Amino acid sequence: MIVLGSVQAAVELLENRSQIYSSRPISVIAQLVSWDWLLSLLPYNAVWRSQRRFFVEHFSKTMIQEYHPIMLQECHRLLVGCLADPSRGRQHLRNLPSAVIARIAYGVQGATSIKEKVALAEGGMASIRQMLVPGAFLAELIPALRYIPAWLPGGSARKFAQTHKKAVIRMRDQPFYEVVDAINAGSSVPSIASSLVMHMQEENDGRELTADQEATARDVVGAAYIGAVDTTSGLMEFLILAIAMHPGVQSKAQTELDRVVGHSRLPGFRDLEDLTYLKAIVMETVRWLPVAPLGAPRLLERDDVYKGYHIPKGTVVSYNAWAMLRDPQDYEDPEKFVPERFIGVNGMIDPLIRDPISIAFGFGRRACPGVSFALSLTTIFAALTLHAFDIEAGVDEVGDPVVLKAEQTGEGISCPTTFPRSIKPRSARTEGLVHDLIPGCDEGI
Ligand code: HEM
């Protein structure tokens, strides 16, 4: 196994030689738990190519604009939820990306159904979180352990699979087949799933989908559902942590919001262009505590030579995004949270400072195809939350002050170890703005 520690090496191998560095290692646990259909784990082959093409079509920068109304509605629901019950702020936040993706991917409607789909995603995600802890399963190193029955010592891989397999398949299949049933009943609503199925039906001159087509459509949408959940909420959680730990940054962002948006309304997508400091906060959050500190591993498909080193076929090649994002040559005082580092003398984002997004979302052909979704949702969430609320560390359940730390969990997809608990309206006026949002949008999640 090789871990690349510099952007230069990652670009030279994962991007410039992507024809041989774009596969993924086979995970014994993923196979046992039935995660091996997932786009992000597929080897570099024709199935991956076809799924990735469909995925990118529905998550391009242009397509994301179609999803703005849903993103905005769900962010409004979050604001109302935080106003009603600030102590559940972190839970409201964690539910936001799942609710948005359930609506976009499957056209789920109504607070109760959304809540049900959020719970379904949670059930499926439980296993992937554990699988992504490096070294969590001995069976990844000694594949023969996969054959040990669950009830024998050493059978933990099978036991784990038994516990989680049903939830994974349910999460992938249930919402998708509900869409197929709705299409057949003539009652479907627009969604990625319905658009994929109907597009394939058209290609078949109206005939039913083949088993391969059905699996492709189902798995592409399932990959979006899974890809969006923990990653995007992780980024939002780090942003809120950073804001609470840096009151100066918070008030500077609020001053910018007051100037651009004013006091009589909440921000919308059209304001984001003019919120340069807010954009810099999102970039600095992506850099400061990266959600995927070690990216995702690749499998080298042919022998290679790099800088005089022979790298044999079959080598697992990972990259240390965390270290790259802390390289002092690119980012002065890298431990500090300083959004200003991205702003040039003209007050705009400085193109000469390396964009952390080009590292944190991966490299080459396997780079994250959900990047525009994640950044759009996080930025509008940040604009709305900072415009409406003041965020502070607060106190815990027993009244002791919360001590916030710039610290992340050790999982493959990480989140903060501490989180602020005080979310208060900035003023009676912003409280009123949140109050006036969609009547009834606080019931449900
Ligand atoms: C803060 C949010 C996110 C972060 C930090 C993130 C990060 C990553 C990283 C590091 C990879 C691996 C790239 C590589 O191999 O070099 C990846 C892959 C992937 N991401 Fe994301 N991601 C985020 C959000 C999303 C969202 C919102 C979606 C779906 C809408 C998504 C879907 C995927 C998929 C499907 C892959 C696999 C691509 C492939 O293997 O071809 N991600 N992501």
From TrEMBL:
Q: In which pathway does it act?
A: Secondary metabolite biosynthesis
Gene Ontology molecular functions: heme binding; iron ion binding; monooxygenase activity; oxidoreductase activity, acting on paired donors, with incorporation or reduction of molecular oxygen
Cofactor requirements of the protein: heme
* Coiled coil feature spans: none
Q: Which Pfam families match?
A: p450
Q: Which GO CC annotations does the UniProt entry carry?
A: membrane
Q: Which PROSITE patterns match?
A: CYTOCHROME_P450
Chief localisation class = membrane
Residues bound to heme are 368
Q: Which UniProt keywords apply?
A: Heme, Iron, Membrane, Metal-binding, Monooxygenase, Oxidoreductase, Transmembrane, Transmembrane helix
Cellular compartment(s):
Membrane
Listed InterPro entries: Cyt_P450 (IPR001128), Cyt_P450_CS (IPR017972), Cyt_P450_E_grp-I (IPR002401), Cyt_P450_sf (IPR036396), Cytochrome_P450_fung (IPR050364)
Q: Which family does it belong to?
A: Belongs to the cytochrome P450 family.
User: PANTHER family per the record?
Assistant: CYTOCHROME P450 MONOOXYGENASE ALNH-RELATED (PTHR46300:SF2), P450, PUTATIVE (EUROFUNG)-RELATED-RELATED (PTHR46300)
Q: What is this protein called?
A: Cytochrome P450-dit2
From the broadest rank down, the organism's phylogenetic lineage runs:
Eukaryota, Fungi, Dikarya, Basidiomycota, Agaricomycotina
